[in-house]
Design a protein that fits this description.
Layout: H1 2-8, H2 16-44, H3 50-61, H4 64-74, H5 78-103, H6 105-124, H7 136-157, H8 164-169, H9 171-206, H10 209-219, E1 273-277, E2 284-286, H11 288-292, E3 297-304, E4 315-324, H12 325-331, E5 345-350, E6 355-359, H13 360-363, E7 370-375, E8 378-379, E9 389-391, E10 405-411, E11 434-439, E12 449-458, E13 464-471, E14 476-478, E15 480-481, E16 491-499, E17 502-512, E18 534-540
Helix pairs in contact: 2-5, 2-7, 2-9, 3-5, 3-6, 5-6, 6-7, 7-9
Length: 544
């Protein structure tokens, strides 16, 4: 039998073809392992996929500066880039493991199994894991990958002819056998790869039962009519200028910056919110139905991400529907520090383990802090926190806008650091006054004549009093502000510029409702948000 022949006959050194096929075998084994793991994860929990689990662990351990760089460089594609990077690293390791298996067949297969164990550990140690079943996808995938690599390399070993008199008398037959066995290797590799691809595609098409239940629960939500509707948007608040950001950001265009590699799909029928902690007289546990049965309010509120650079895209305005968070806290007996309450921090916890710390005083000072379940007239999209998220005007999202919230704990800033604080971000972060030129775009080439310079400015909970534009090193000229909706929303602005041919720098600055004007010097986003004047360079065409 082949096994006896492989064990006892002398073999030559591996050829280049052997090494190439062994590397290919490692890649195929890794691919099948991941595809099978994804298929199993679709039935267990999508977040238990090894790439997602390892990626999440990587995100948690990545220095804050590197995360900020990734957001600046790749924008909302940062998660896709991370997962692609993980796959590339795994591919390189798989090539090495395939070559190892060519020399030590069992050791190569064991290496595949070891990576499966690492994936399983990563899955069960994630903050959102609550079951040992999260280890199953990685273990099952690795087991099949290890077995496949063992079989594939076995095919290759069978193609290696003997040496000496055996090789001299049977070279032609050995060569023919080698070709046949290599064809067999390729057939096994291709067929298992295709089968794994089909299985993974089927798993993604069918979806997980948990995701199906979550989608059905969202489809069944009927938003209540607000007891306190949002005031009508003033007629002059929406400017019809080509290229300017719309006053209300459509849900599909609203920015998303978070650490979730897989968007949590929460079943609203099983969702619960727990309110507990220091200073809570009576703990509360609420369902979505409980929240929607309470007094609901509707408000237009602009949200901004602390990772937004000067002139960046991570800001948006939406109409939110929810319940006042301050009412819920007072019902539970919570008092703000200004009234003698012992807790100065509210720690919101997401279903994926994210923690966000918010000053209790800010939540309870009369602003429209919400537990929101509606966004622009529909239930929250999954990407934006369905079934419930926090919205607190005037604070950056990382200290206020917890998505997929499941717990609110009252504590102190001295007693607990939320997720971002140990990573170098400030514990408290009010939104900074910012303004942005939306049109003309950077490096645009408008024609000479009247060019409408336009954009948005925001300083939530303070409002915008004035916006000014400067052309090159000329004087500041006041722009026309759109009507103010509320001080918690951004304001559009326009400035008609008589553009002359040549290269020009356009700069904008804003003054908030307190009379404070944006400082000129640009600062980085860390530790509590960027500031500085936004400018664009354009080349005006036309003239002699």
């Amino acid at each position: 039998m082949n096994a006896t022949r492989d064990t006892h006959r002398p073999v030559r050194e591996a050829t280049r073809t052997d090494r190439l096929l062994a590397a290919l075998g490692g890649l195929v084994a890794a691919y099948v392992s991941l595809a099978v793991a994804d298929l199993v994860a679709s039935r267990v929990r999508p977040e238990a996929s090894p790439v997602v689990a390892v990626g999440g662990a990587f995100v948690d351990r990545t220095p804050a500066g590197l995360k900020d760089w990734a957001i600046r460089t790749f924008g909302e594609n940062d998660k896709a880039v991370l997962q692609l990077g993980i796959l590339l690293v795994l591919a390189l390791l798989a090539v090495g493991i395939g070559l190892l298996a060519l020399r030590r067949r069992a050791l190569g297969s064991a290496a595949v199994g070891a990576f499966g164990v690492l994936g399983a550990i990563a899955a069960v140690t994630r903050p959102d894991s609550d079951s040992a079943l999260d280890a199953v996808p990685s273990l099952v995938g690795a087991a099949l990958g290890a077995l496949l690599l063992y079989v594939l390399v076995g095919r290759l070993l069978a193609t290696r002819p003997g040496t000496g008199s055996e090789a001299e008398t049977g070279t032609g037959a050995a060569t023919a056998a080698a070709r046949a066995d290599r064809r067999s290797f390729l057939v096994v590799a291709a067929s298992t790869g295709l089968a794994a691809t089909g299985a993974a595609a089927l798993g993604r098409a069918v979806g997980s039962p948990a995701e199906e239940n979550a989608a059905a629960s969202r489809a069944a939500v009927r938003l209540p009519r607000p007891a306190s509707p949002a005031p009508p948007v003033p007629a002059g608040a929406r400017l019809a200028v080509p290229g300017i950001s719309p006053f209300v950001t459509p849900n599909r265009d609203f920015y998303r910056v978070d650490t979730a590699l897989v968007v949590p799909k929460v079943d609203a029928n099983r969702w619960r919110l727990r309110l507990h902690g220091t200073g809570v007289r009576e703990e509360l546990t609420l369902t979505l139905r409980d929240l929607m049965a309470r007094r609901t309010v509707e408000r237009d509120i602009t949200l901004a991400c602390v990772s937004n650079e000067v002139g960046g895209p991570y800001v948006g305005n939406a109409r939110w529907l929810g319940v006042p968070l301050a009412d819920l806290l007072r019902e539970a007996g919570v008092r703000p520090p200004s009234e003698g309450g012992p807790a100065d921090q509210l720690v919101a916890r997401s279903v994926d383990g994210m923690t966000i710390g918010t000053p209790v005083e800010d939540v309870m000072d009369g602003r429209d802090s919400l537990l929101a379940f509606g966004m622009n007239g529909e239930p929250l999209p999954f990407e934006h926190g369905f079934p419930v998220r926090m919205v607190v005007p005037g604070l950056f999202g990382y200290v206020s806008a917890c998505k997929w919230i499941e717990s609110i704990e009252l504590t102190t800033f001295d007693a607990y650091d939320a997720y971002w604080v140990p990573r170098g971000w400030a514990a408290e972060a009010p939104v900074k006054t910012q303004s942005r030129i939306d049109t003309p775009r950077p490096f645009g080439r408008p024609a000479a004549g009247t060019v409408m310079v336009a954009g948005v400015a925001w300083a939530q909970h303070r409002g915008i009093r004035r916006v000014e534009v400067r052309i090159d090193d000329g004087p500041w000229r006041e722009a026309r502000l759109a009507a103010e909706d509320t001080r918690d929303t951004w304001r559009q602005w326009t400035y008609p510029w008589e553009a002359t041919p040549g290269r020009h720098t356009l700069t904008v600055r804003a003054t908030d409702g307190t009379g404070a004007t944006q400082p000129e010097r640009r600062t980085a986003t860390m530790p509590d948000g960027a500031q500085g004047w936004h400018s664009v360079v354009v080349t005006v065409e036309g003239g002699e």
